[in-house]
Amino acid sequence: MYFVYSLENKLTNELYYGYTNNLERRLKEHNIKNEYKLICYEAYISETDARDRERKLKNYGQARTHLKNRLRNSLNL
Fold first, then answer.
1. ∠ CA 54-52-47, rounded to 5°
2. Per-residue confidence of the chain (77 residues) as pLDDT tens digits?
């Protein structure tokens, strides 16, 4: 299983997107350098699908906007 995740830097409020096959380990690695909060994650069976989704989130504003809108709607913000 592969995970695409969104993190928020607690100091700067910047978002970070990545993918991994071990979400818990990857969160610990991120938090060694800075303090991050997991915002959301998506699970994929295929590494290729996860990598493609991460690339879209990092490179295409429309994909990020769509994700932010989904989160806002689900959290009623």
1. 95
2. 999 999 989 888 888 899 999 999 999 999 888 899 999 899 999 999 999 999 988 887 677 777 777 777 776 65
